[in-house]
């Protein structure tokens, strides 16, 4: 899994029908609490908002987490992070 | 998923028979709305044109989106982007 | 598989229900015994602690190692490293 | 999929028996028609030769393209490129 | 697949039970015959030794090559390289 920051939202009228109703967010991967250049798009399964730090799964795991192995998604938000504790000091 | 820009089209007469009739596009990954060096080839499932920004899935998700788990593709265009909204200001 | 160092622990109240009870650790990939910048999150299946060096599997392998193909995880700790021996001299 | 240049051929007597008779080629990933440093090995399913530009699939897609889901390969050549047209001028 | 050099061996007493008896090697990816910084761990299926150049498969392909889709491995050595011939001159 990856820790990512939600930085945006995508609208796409012309798309695979099974994506209808799916909330697609723009994310940036985080490293040591810092937002990096690495950008990806993920389906939001837990109601995350712009600015929140989230847990993202990818590949076939994302499809299954979203409820069906035939969904055309390969990344999904599966948790909103409260705290990350690393080596005795709290990061967030 | 990735946000990519369609930059080209591929013709290949000698190929796996199941690729017959499949529209193969050359794409560049985008980051923060800017086209990067990262190049990939994807099957077009929604009729995207050169110059358009699209949503691309990869791996086994691409095969299933294209309709069959035995298709020899590992990336597919599943949406054409209208707008990307990031942190209160519209990017496109 | 990857060799990683366990550097932290994640708490997330709002998450996919099937992640309930799953211990999620923050890891850094190691190279030649040195901790790199590459950060990832993995489910802990063997009771690893912060500071330990571990063996991590990813993708669908991680789901199956954790016991169910529908779990929303794509990385899992499957072993705690005692020693790495490289070319006649012991690294750890 | 990736666009790659075929740069070499591999011989390996001691290998998994199911790789017997499989032609293994050394490839370099191309970007914008230029051969990059990224090197990989793929099974050749269409009779490509050294110096040709090809379409390569990876992961479980490669196994299925080669005809069996249990084959120990994770990359396969599935097409030989005639032309790549990008933004109104022919690259090759 | 990747061409890698075997550079080490891993011992881990505390691990997933199904890894019992599995020989885990430390590898470095090769490029153009030169050992790079990219480090990974793979199960050895063909009896490779430290210093040998090998063919490595990853992902679900590795599990199946090792004999069972539920094994907690995502990389496996499936061949020991005799020669790599690139563009009319022998590399090894």
Automatic annotation (TrEMBL), chains A, B, C, D, E:
Keyword Cytoplasm annotated: no
The protein, known as: Ethanolamine utilization protein EutN
Organism: Enterocloster lavalensis
Predominant cellular place of this UniProt entry's protein: other
Gene Ontology CC terms, in alphabetical order: carboxysome
Keywords: Bacterial microcompartment, Carboxysome
Localization in the cell: Carboxysome
Pfam families: EutN_CcmL
Keyword Transmembrane recorded: no
